[in-house]
Amino acid sequence: MATMPAFLGKTAHAGASVVRTAPAVARPDKDPCRLRALPLDDVLFYSKRIDNSRLVRAADPRARGACWSAVGAAGVLLVLLTGTQVPNLAGRLEGYKLEALKGEERRLLDERRTLELQEAELLSPDRLERVAERQNLVAPTAGQVVHLDGNKPDSAFALVK
Amino acid sequence: MLERRLKWLAGLVLIWGGVIFCKLVSLQVVHHRLYAGLARARQEQVIKILAPRGTILDRSGAPLAMSVPTQAVFVNPQKVPDLGVAADLLSMVLTMDRADLYARLEAARDGGRGYFVVERKATWEEAQRLRGMAFDWVEISSGSERHYPNGSLAAHILGGVDFDEKGNAGIEKSLEADLQGAAGEERVLTDVKGRGIDALVESEPKPGAALTLTIDERLQFVAEHELAQAARDKGAHSGSVVVMNPSNGEILALASYPAFDPNLPPGPEDNPEARLNHASSVPFEPGSVFKVITLAAALETTRLRPESMIDCGRGSITLFGRTIHEAHGGYGVISMADVLKHSSNVGAIRIGMTVGEERMHEYVRRFGFGEKTGVPLPAESRGRLRGLERWSKASLPSISIGQEVSVTALQLAQAASIVANGGLLVRPRLVLKRGGQTVRVPAPVRVIKPETAVTMRQMMEGVVMPGGTGYPEARLEGYSVAGKTGSAQIYDVAAKHYTHYYNGSFIGFAPLNNPAIVVVVTLNGTHGNLGFGGRAAAPVFHAVATEALRVLDVPRDLGEEPRPVTEAGSAEDKDDLSIADLGSSEPNILEESDEDASAPTAPVGPTVPDFKGKTMRAVLAEAAEKGLPVVPDGSGVARLQFPPAGSMLRQGERIRVRFSR
Fold first, then answer.
1. Distance CA B641, CA B90 (A)
2. CB-based contact B263:B386 (threshold 8 Å)
3. pLDDT tens digit string along B211-221?
4. Which of B62, B642, B643 sits opposite A120 (nearest CB)?
């Protein structure tokens, strides 16, 4: 773990033993050019070797129980939050989809009306007449068309002459 | 030391918390409405749900008028930060000329306008692109625009709409309440990107009701086409055609000339007469076609019969100081049927005098003249029929030949229907279905006795027989026809005399025994011999009636008979002129026709047997025995057949037999 002395680079290594010496005074106390010391500027740290080899891990049932309790509580809390928020989130996502589909439906309905208009313009009698004239077609005379199904005169017909 | 610092820290946290709490109170309580409104404005959009104006359809369901959605793009020129950039963007998205748009935008800004229409008919994609740019100076509104896919077809029936899609003429105006829709509103919750999350419909849209007219698109086209052609050929300034079903009053076609395109807004250069519906709004003196009413009244109220002899005074009659001539020559004593056939003015006047003023007035009213027919068209004219108390001594003879009275083509169709359907007044109607519901037909009213109607039909058939004023133009191949020509001189109000310009007209129906159609043709402002009803209007009747009978699939009741041909402008023009003070030296003198029907070419093939009254089994057996192809239709006994019995069957032709019980 990086300690503050390590961070500040003010650690002193003196082999196995580290001797703490008084700070050397480089400048007189009342040096007018001296800057204000940083906090703990005059404190020197040293690393202390700690031997944990004699420590023995021992099970602590109470701490373990508390840990599991905390995990359980967190789990329950998570389930509760999920249970309350997921439908909301799902509803919102479905709302997005629904609104997008509604917009699409409107657009398609508009498009259908536009296409119906185009179809009507293409089937206008005036246009059909001009097309028929170009192709040398004439309208059948009365009695020339025989409907194959008497009940549905527009369903099917055949020219007999 | 540490404690003191902790106290300070706690104090600071407390103050910080207090400030937050105060702010929360301010936001949530004090200014709740303001911020809630602001939030709503950001998170909610009120969207207008369009309710399109009702579609107008013809009787077979073909659209005649429909509204399509449009996206209109507006800008506020005063808010545009840089006109050049705005012109660049808008011209790029809307595919417009940049320089032109810039000039228009600049003019609008300099003119102090806060509203400038960039494009009225932007596509949905273009509108979406502009919406995505989210400029505060661009506004896009959804609307709809009325379209008439067939252009000028049935323009006088349909009318038109203004910029707000409100009807301003025709059916669009008179049935505005049915056609107009009411837009709805929807409140949409949106996210920060403007995407919809949830929606609440505040008010449901109410689309306009679809109207199905009695008009047949194909017949309407033929009627307008033939009318325009005839008007151009004969020099008529206006005209009209009405095709009506005499049994139920359904108007199958109603054409008026000149026409206009309702897709285009009226301009200063437009002919104002083009917007008039000459069939329903412009009355005219009917002339000789009105003799049908005179003779029907005579059959009903006097002892005159078709064979009763009428003294036609050798061509002129002087009444109350006014001499009335036949158009040419004159007739001696002829039968009442011949009076109609030759359209004798003197004969009609004598018959009218026999009927008398009161009864004549009553019958003219009974036939529906002098009152509106009731079709849902704005500005329908009731014509002009003066009250009996305002009749002069000369009124009766004048009205007997169709003068001193003005009528519309629609009224003539209604009157002709009375004769055609056996004596019942059936009101013409234009709307078949309203919002999917069939419109009720009002009960007909009896006007003349059935036998009178039958007699009139027979007499009117004479008009299209050799020697009649409608022969041969009004003859139809394969169908019996009844009709009456009319050529009324147009009265010059300024000069106070009749001119040599005519209202050429023809009323007719077919087939004779069970008429399926009544056709009325009028051409106003024709002149010369070719401008008479028999010459100008009867050919239009022929073309329109032929097409109508074909479209309606009406069985033929006559054998095929080649149509006699007359040369235009020959000396066969018929005397059907209602002439007031026209001397025999006038240049428009007509001559009697010669019956020069060309001989029909002899067809080759087997003779068609008479199947009428036989069962289907018997018909099929007989046909099989003779090797004749038969197309049976229906069940029961044979009622109708085509080709008729006795005619020759052409190669490849089949005999169509209709059976009924």
1. 68
2. no
3. 999 999 999 99
4. B62
> Can you tell me the distance from the alpha carbon of B654 to that of B646, in angstroms, rounded to the nearest whole number?
14
Kindly state the DSSP code that residue A144 receives in the 8-state scheme: S
Kindly state the DSSP code that residue B43 receives in the 8-state scheme. H
Take residue B482 and report the two structure tokens written for it: 């009844």
Instruction: Note whether B69 contacts A124, CB cutoff 8 Å.
Output: no
In this structure, the number of other CB atoms found within 10 A of the CB of residue B164 comes to 8
Tell me, yes or no, whether B224 and B193 share the same domain.
no
C-beta separation of B64 from B189 below 8 A: no
Q: CA B396 to CA B349: how far, in whole Å?
A: 8
How many contiguous H segments (helices) and E segments (strands) does chain A have? Answer: 3, 2
Place of tokens 């005379």: A141
CA A158 – CA B283 distance, rounded (Å): 44
Mean pLDDT confidence for B129-142 = 84
Is A160 at the interface with chain B, CB within 8 A? Answer: yes
State how far Cα B367 lies from the chain centre: 22
In a mutational test of the B interface, the residue from A115, A124, A161 whose CB has the highest number of chain B CBs within 10 Å is A124
With CA atoms as reference, report the closest residue to B487 among B316, B286, B291: B286
Q: What is the DSSP string of B535-596?
A: IIIHHHHHHHHHHHHHHTTPPP-S---PPP---TTSTT----EE-SS--TTSTT---PPP--
Question: What letter does residue B215 receive in the DSSP assignment?
Answer: -
3-state secondary structure of B23: helix
Q: What is the residue-averaged pLDDT of chain B?
A: 86
Q: Which of B67, B150, B477, B558 to mutate to test the interface with A (most CBs of A within 10 A)?
A: B150
- In chain B, residues with a C-beta closer than 8 Å to the C-beta of A96 are 191, 195-197
A76-125 pLDDT, tens digit each: 999 999 999 999 899 989 988 988 898 889 889 888 988 999 999 999 99
Quick check: bond before B511 cis, omega within 30?
yes
Number of domains in chain B: 3
Rounded Cα gap, residues B654 and B417, in angstroms: 34
Question: Cα(B59)–Cα(B248) distance, rounded to whole angstroms?
Answer: 14
**One domain, residues B400 and B438:** yes
CA angle A44, A47, A53 (to 5 degrees): 160
Looking at the complex, report in whole angstroms how far the Cα of residue B415 sits from the nearest Cα belonging to chain A.
27
Nearest CA among B469, B391, B458 for reference residue B419:
B458
Cβ separation of A113 and B189 shorter than 8 Å? no
B518-541: per-residue pLDDT in tens? Answer: 999 999 999 877 788 888 999 999
Q: Give a yes or no: residue B166 inside a domain.
A: no
Of the residues B553, B578, B603, which one is the last residue of a structural domain?
B578
Residues of B with active-site annotation: 288
Q: What is the ipTM of this complex?
A: 0.73
* Domain identity same for B142 and B229: no
Long-range pairs for B619-627 at CB < 8 Å and ≥24 separation? Answer: B619/B657, B623/B655
Closest residue of B to A107, CA-based?
B124
A123 Cα distance to chain centroid: 50
pLDDT bucket at B114, cuts 50 / 70 / 90 = confident
Report the pLDDT value the prediction gives residue B322, as an integer from 0 to 100. 79
Strand partners of residue B67: B146
Using an 8 Å CB-CB cutoff, list chain A residues near B188: 99
Q: What is the DSSP letter of B334?
A: E
User: What gap in Å lies between CA B311 and CA B334, rounded to an integer?
Assistant: 7
Q: Which residues of chain A are within 8 Å of residue B127 when distances are taken between CB atoms?
A: none
pLDDT of B592 reads: 29
Contact predicate B251/B214, CB 8 Å: yes
Identify the domain containing residue B635 by its residue range: 616-660
Which of B552, B578, B604 corresponds to the end of one domain? B578
- B574, B446: one domain: yes
- Looking at the predicted structure, is the pLDDT value of residue A10 above 70? no
Helix (H, G, I), strand (E, B) or coil at B480: coil
